[in-house]
Amino acid sequence: MTTTTDTLTAATPKAAPHPLRAEAVRGFPPLAGIAVMVAVGVMMIATARTWQGDWAETAGRMHDGLLMAVPVAAAAGCWHGGRERRRRTEELWGTAVRPPLTRLLASAVPVALWVAVGYLLVVACASLATWPYSPGDHPHLILVPGDTAALMAAVLLGHVVGRIVPSLLAAPLLGVAGYAGLAGVVPHDGVQPLDPASFTLNGSWPVWWQPLAMAAWTLGLALAVALAYAARRRATALLPLAAALTGAALLVQGGDATWQADPLLRRQVCDTSTTPAICVNARYGAVLPQVTTALSGITGRLRGVEGLPVRWADRENGPRSGEAQLPILTPVGWALVRGRLVRPDQYAYEAVAALMNRGECERQSERVAFADDAVMSYLAPNPAYREFDAIEARGDAAERAHLRASLAARAKLAGMDEERRRVWLSAYFTARAACDDAGVPSL
Predict the structure, then answer these.
(1) Would you say 325 and 355 are in contact if contact means Cβ atoms under 8 Å apart?
(2) How many Cα atoms within 13 Å fall on the side-chain side of residue 150?
(3) Are 119 and 69 in contact (CB under 8 A)?
(4) Nearest Cα to Cα of residue 156 among 56, 54, 230
(5) Is the pLDDT of residue 2 over 50?
(6) Residue 81 pLDDT > 90, yes or no?
(7) Structural contact between residues 435 and 363, judged by C-beta atoms closer than 8 angstroms
(8) Rg (Cα) of the chain, in Å, rounded?
(9) 243 — phi, psi (to 5°)?
(10) CA-closest candidate to residue 295, choices 282, 322, 314, 267
């Protein structure tokens, strides 16, 4: 009895693998995912200095990568869609039991899934690269679902094009046309909200339903085209088409209301132990100790000085009354790289320049110019001062005389005793809005 059972078991044929599994684990679909991963990954690596360490920049740059990823995904889908024609097996597949829609989806879905996986792997790697250098913000992943849906929709649309257009050039031409179409969308144009690869607004993020509406628009349109092409009852394409039009209507009618300002941009994180106080945007709160250290030489020399602004501030719409503009930390890659201030001396110079801002002065008197130069040299000399002085030293008689007067003013301010210099600086900053000699102490 046991022998008979074993024989029957051995003779039972194994179940055929699911067509999606057979397509997904071999052939072209994994290559399509790698192509998208390389297209976006190379761009991210090449620009790592400008986003690594800033969650907002990382999310924005990943989203901007769709400008490359969507055309690649569409071209991959188009190439795979023409597979049967290249193999000359169209007539053979026409006799298969599976309906055309099933065959289309069994061929297109694995490519779409691999493209999504490739993009999500880049998102994960970029997030891991930013994590150690985060300046105080948090990950922004709200755009990822809509971006992934757009990539999958591009594959499906490209697949249908590949089946319709009998040309080996269809895939590369579709990729080029897709890139040109996405790059050619004019900002603030009527169709711009429908562009899945439109650039993000710095400091703004979509409301919670915007990615869902974008997914409905892109995937709904792609499914409608696929059903209209391959379904037995083409009227079924009306359902995803209705979803696509609904998503499009929400995106277009929503306009600017689909984006909201980052609440962190309205908050300040301050160190009030210095004079003036130092406040950075809450988005970069973890950088405050570095900023305080970079400005410590200035704040130490200004201790006890009157007439100063209350604080340095980094506000979205500029400093308020009684504040000075803190040198901005953005765009990332200039002053701030991977969470570090790369030029503290230049940053300190710019901070002093903001304290000495004379507003709308078109022309300053000679006394004001020499006073400004002496204060700058004392508090935070420009790293390029020596080069400027060397140029004047090689100039004509007037330039050499101007250099001698500047050096004398700098030496006089630096040589004062602390109490006298404190009184002089108090008078200087009290009159910092003056363009003429009125109120500005002489040197």
Answers:
(1) no
(2) 30
(3) yes
(4) 230
(5) no
(6) no
(7) yes
(8) 32
(9) -65, -40
(10) 314
Tell me if the bond preceding 172 is cis, omega within 30° of 0: no
* Cβ-contact 399, 388 below 8 angstroms: no
Listed residue (356, 102, 376) closest to 227, CA to CA: 102
Task: Give yes or no for residue 262 having a pLDDT over 70.
Answer: yes
Q: How far is it, in rounded angstroms, from Cα 293 to Cα 297?
A: 8
Lowest mean pLDDT among 1-5, 71-75, 133-137, 366-370: 1-5
Dump the DSSP string for 360-384: T-SS--HHHHHHHHHHHHHHS--TT
CA dihedral 369, 370, 375, 380 (to 10 degrees): 80
In DSSP terms, which residues pair with 311 in a beta bridge? Answer: 277, 323
What's the rounded Cα separation, in Å, for the pair 392 and 388?
6
Beta bridge partners of 206: 259
Measure the CA dihedral 312/316/321/326, to 10°: 20
Chain centroid, CA 275 distance in Å = 34
3-state secondary structure 121-190: HHHHHHHHHHHHHCCCCCCCCCCHHHHHHHHHHHHHHHHHHHHHCCCCCHHHHHHHHHHHHHHCCCCCCC
pLDDT digits (tens, 9 = 90+) for 15-63: 555 556 656 566 788 999 999 999 999 999 999 998 998 898 999 999 9
Closest listed residue to residue 28, CA positions, set 90, 88, 113? 113
Cα–Cα distance for residue pair 83/89, rounded to 1 Å: 9
Percent of the chain with pLDDT over 90: 40
146, 211 Cβ separation under 8 angstroms: yes
Q: What is the pLDDT of residues 345-387, one digit of tens each?
A: 889 999 998 888 766 666 777 888 888 888 988 998 876 777 7
Q: Residue 123 in contact with residue 62, Cβ under 8 Å?
A: yes
Structure tokens at 298: 């200035």
CB burial of 335-363 (b: ≥16 within 10 Å; e: otherwise) equals bbbbbebeebebbbbbbbbbbeeeeeeee
Residues 440/368, Cβ–Cβ less than 8 Å: yes
Per-residue pLDDT band for 104 (boundaries 50, 70, 90) equals: confident
The number of CA neighbours under 13 Å toward the Cβ of 425 is 30
Mean pLDDT value across residues 245-259: 88
In terms of Cα–Cα distance, which of 295, 302, 217 is closest to 251?
217
CB within 8 Å of 42: residues ≥ 6 apart: none
Give the helix ranges, DSSP H, for 210-324. 210-230, 238-254, 288-294, 296-301
